[in-house]
Amino acid sequence: MKHCGGSRTRSRNKRGFPVTMSLPGRNTVSPPILSFATLNAAPHEVYRELRPEFPFVQREDGAFLVLRAHDVQPLVSDPRTRQIETELIRARGITDGPVMELVSNSLLFSNGETHRRRRQPLSRCFAFRMMEGLRANVRSLAEALVTLKLGDGEMKLRDDYAASIPAITIAAILGIPRSDVPLFTSMAYRVSKILTTSWTREDLPDIELAINDLSSYVATLIDDRRKHPRADFLSDYVASVDEAAQMSAVEAVMQIVSVVLGGTDTTRAAIVIMVGLLLDRRDGLWQALHHQPAMVAAAVLESLRFEPAVASIPRLAVEDISLDGHVIPRGSPVLLSTMSSLRDPDVFLDPGQFNLTRPQGKWHPVFGGGEHRCLGEALARIEMEEALTALVNSLLDLEVGDQKLNIRGHAGIRQVDELVVRWR
Ligand code: HEM
């Protein structure tokens, strides 16, 4: 494996973030600095090889990737860290415009009281109990999408199926007319690119345009519900925002944009990954799921562990963080690697085995923890369960076409290539 080299001084890289250092006399070898190319080429292998020796590695842009489960879990809500606010986008040269407006107004990138007042009007609506009420609708949607394709003998799993389930469900939660769903879906996927590590300066104009379009669209919806309240999520949200009178108009819009952002790309990728992993297994797992529907929930949880759709959780070190004799310097961006920690043998027996009988806790670590724990966990799990159930119920002989499952990315939201699936 090629490393970029190491450093033991508290110097700064070209983005202004501190570079790695170790406690004097404790460890002679500093954690390596790795290029994006090395990390993207074979992330699981890199993490497996380096995790026993180093609690973290540094990326060439200055971010520290924390690798071990026993560090990742507590650091999500440790007082030595806080949520990243605008630091990462500033480091990429963005100081104003739509991306800055989104990031500086979203609950996803805020802390303390600001975060609480932005999250509070959303939390009640996304409670597990409330989401269970949507299960029947998600089921009908998944079944209808499968039925639509049944006669074709094949489909694009990502674009024809997995993408539609979260997008149409959020559109329904927001009360968006069915005829606007394609427009809404395309805006959502264009905006959500900002949460991946793969966007470049060339992508920026389109992302900015999409943020403007989506926020204007949401602003119109909010306005409509204010004038004509209905018995729906958005009317409750608007009433709660207006009653608390603690959010600006832009903030009220950006929390809804954040929900769209958090809930589309993540779940689309997670559905494709789950189905791809199950079909890749030659041990009759797919057929077993058909006969034992109780295994569906376990398949969802194990696929989220084995190949998480969200590979890391971002934080900023507000003081020096010492881990196993190495120090992450204060002011550094920290990426708590779910991808590495969910395969840490200190916590998961035979972590490289895809095993549906593995004991799973009530709270899956892929959804984070503490104050920022995923608001859409219940919804995501329902969408994945119903997406899988509709497929195993109707397509017992489903198989992957010529291209195998291909997942890209070592941090942030991972990208998944199109996966064509076939049946007779
Ligand atoms: C498999 C699918 C999903 C995964 C793996 C996932 C993962 C996560 C993670 C790790 C966080 C915490 C980020 C942090 O601490 O910095 C988060 C936050 C969030 N997620 Fe999800 N998510 C998924 C689906 C969804 C869905 C379906 C929605 C909404 C419909 C959603 C909405 C949100 C929101 C609004 C936040 C921000 C919470 C806050 O900052 O207080 N997510 N998600």
TrEMBL record:
GO molecular function annotations of the record: heme binding; iron ion binding; monooxygenase activity; oxidoreductase activity, acting on paired donors, with incorporation or reduction of molecular oxygen
Cofactors (names): heme
Segments of skewed composition (Basic residues): 1-15
Alphabetized UniProt keyword annotations: Heme, Iron, Metal-binding, Monooxygenase, Oxidoreductase
Top-level taxon of origin: Bacteria
Region (Disordered), start-end ranges: 1-24
Alphabetized Gene3D superfamilies for the sequence: Cytochrome P450
Family statement: Belongs to the cytochrome P450 family.
Record's protein name: Cytochrome P450
